[in-house]
Amino acid sequence: MSELMPNLFDRRYDDLVEIGRSLLPGIAPAWTDFNVHDPGITLMELLAWVAEAQMYSLARMRTDERAAYAALFGIRGAGNRAASGILWSDPLDPNSPARTFSGSIVLKPGYPIYMLGDNTLVYRPASSILWIPGTITRLRSQSAAGAARDLTSVNDRGGAVYLPLGDSAGPKDVLSMDFQTRSENGIFPTSRSDAADAYWTIGIRAATLSGEAVPARSAAALGTSAGSPLEARLIDGTATYRVPIIADTSQGLLSSGVLLLDLSQVTGSPQQFTLELRAPRGLPRAPRLIRLEPNVLPITQKTQIVQEAHEVSGQPGQSISLNTPSLCFESGETPLAVNLNDGTNLVPWSRCAHLADQGPNDQVYELDDRLGLVTFGNGVNGQIPPLGQTALMTYAVSNGVEGNVARNRKWRVEGIAGTFGVNVDPLAGGAAAASLIDLRRQARQKKDEDHALISAQDILAAARALPLIEVGRAWVPSFPVAAAQTGTVTLVALRARPNGVEPGTPPETPRWLEAIRSQLVPSMPLGTRLRVTGPDYVDFTIKARVQFERGRDPTKLLPAVREALRRRLTLVATLPSDIPRDLGAPLSTRDVTSWIRAVAGVTAVSEVVFVTSTGSVTDITVSAIGLPRADLQNSQLTTSSAGAASSGGAS
Fold first, then answer.
1. What pLDDT is stored for residue 393 in this prediction?
2. Distances in Å between the alpha carbon of 566 and those of 352, 496, 542, 577, 589?
3. What pLDDT does residue 217 have?
4. 101, 435, 436, 632 from 504: Cα distances, Å
5. Residue ranges in the chain modelled with pLDDT below 70
6. Of 491, 512, 495, the residue nearest 625 (C-alpha)
7. Architecture of domain 129-295
8. Which CATH architecture has domain 451-533?
9. What is 238-302 written as a DSSP string?
10. pLDDT tens, residue by residue, 586-629
11. Element at 113 (helix H, strand E)
12. Residue 158: per-residue pLDDT
């Protein structure tokens, strides 16, 4: 690792004295007595001592300097990180509360939750949860054109991937869920006031391009959600209620996570209702889900300690140790709230960086968050808390990395009989508090990675690293692009193709391209515009007559021919053997003939022609940012055997 600054402490006291003594004959020829008793030598030694101290200080980075260096990059200290995750119902347990409970309950953040057979670590709900036992009676999607698809059975199985908002996820595409509660009181408990500030949860299991489940985001993000691109409505007969989405860790169904829904605006308490989800502005791509399940439980290992009492001695500089010193807080959060209670009033005291900077009347305290030590003033620097009062400390703690748990463990909730559910994803995110060395390392990493997108490589790397957008390939042309204004950088982007299959229509929709631009443009240099576009496609099919060796079965060889064409004409590589097309490269029938001829068993290729929207051609020319897009599914390959007449038929 490179040094943060050059080593300035390369001279010591003796070195400085000798340097000064050696310069004296030239600077002051009349000075002849260089012994230690000479006052001039004494003065020079004093200056050497001061210079050594200053050089030592400049060559060392103090604690506050390290923290300030990290703060320049927006990195501030944090406490322990709490592990978090999501509990889903166990489909193999017929006696689970999700299947047997007949009444809605509210799970408060203080409810203890334990892993089955292990009571050493306690977890709690990440929010106040309105838990409504019931069943999805129907799940369906409806496109803007009115086409409906029933998704109930595929969602119940929980293994196959389906598109909850259709192929486009446009503004008018709707996911509709009919839900039947098992309670005579409907969605709310007997005392509706118990459900105040409690939210209903919808669990989302999203899939990657390859169909694998995406691990769920941290449930800790429930408290810091930046909003959702989705809109929710609850329909109770003829009444329709807009349901605020309090948090969305699924990022609009694109990732695994949780939707937190506020049902407080529903005036009644229906036993059955319909919940509709839509994206008013559309989504950059169509979500892929494996399962959608109401009543999942987001949990965290973070524990809130409220008004822990400590007696005040009335002595100057009193220090109080917290009962549980493993403080849990995020960067920028206040780790501790201190209130002094005189028996009648609660007076809040504020945290300060250094008591030495405070006045005698300032009601402040200094906190060492690593030791969990609170120190009050001495009457000169900070006020002394009055004798007889009680200091009430409110803070959060966690066990850090010890709270991380592997997937598929069973869990129980205190007060609820039976096994509540399982965590299909690991409980993760638990970590120890970042040290000053960690802060410096993060700052150095951020300095190298988070910078303006200056070069073409910067832009390409940033585009390919965008989460959930699925950029398969990208280019920044080095030549001027038509329609681009002066001072505009053009990025040509291709979406990844699931399983290597070319879709019927180009997948680079305006919403997808705008999602890339909106995420990259804040990092562009001032005065530089960014234009994101898809390639100029030329769609075509292939007509060709392929001759095989005598005795070879065309039905077995034709798939090999099509696979060879797919590898050569693919636009986004999905396999190591794929050879993606270069931007702007033309295509000729000679290219296709040579590719087919290289397939084992093929003896000759004739009558190769490309069919485009303008007719049949032998060469396809594309623009500088264009690509030929082959429709191999509808291409016609006529087969025959060597020395025999054509077998006929398109294949």
1. 96
2. 66, 15, 12, 10, 15
3. 64
4. 47, 53, 54, 11
5. 1-9, 58-64, 66, 217-226, 482-485, 641-651
6. 491
7. Sandwich (2.60)
8. 2-Layer Sandwich (3.30)
9. TEEEEE-EEEETTTTTTSSEEEEE--TT--S--SEEEEEEE-TT--SS---EEEEEET-EEEES-
10. 999 999 999 999 999 999 998 899 999 999 999 999 999 999 99
11. strand 113-115
12. 85
Report DSSP state, residue 435: P
Query: Could you tell me if 53 and 426 are in contact, meaning their C-beta atoms sit under 8 angstroms apart?
Result: no
- How many residues in total does the chain contain? 651
**pLDDT of the residue at 319:** 95
Could you give the angle at the alpha carbon of 596 between the alpha carbons of 595 and 599, nearest 5°? 95
Contact 458, 448 (CB under 8 A): no
- Which among 293, 278, 272 has a CA at the least distance from the CA of 179? 272
> What pTM value is reported for the model?
0.81
Structure tokens at 201: 């949860």
pLDDT at position 24, please?
86
303-397 has which fold? Immunoglobulin-like (2.60.40)
Closest of 18, 7, 9, 86 to residue 48, by C-alpha: 18
- Other CB atoms within a 10 A radius of the CB of residue 568 amount to 19
Residue boundaries of the structural domains of the chain: 1-60, 62-76+436-450, 84-123+402-422, 129-295, 303-397, 451-533, 536-650
Q: Are 640 and 548 in contact (CB under 8 A)?
A: yes
Helices and strands: H and E segment counts in the chain: 10, 36
DSSP label of 110? T
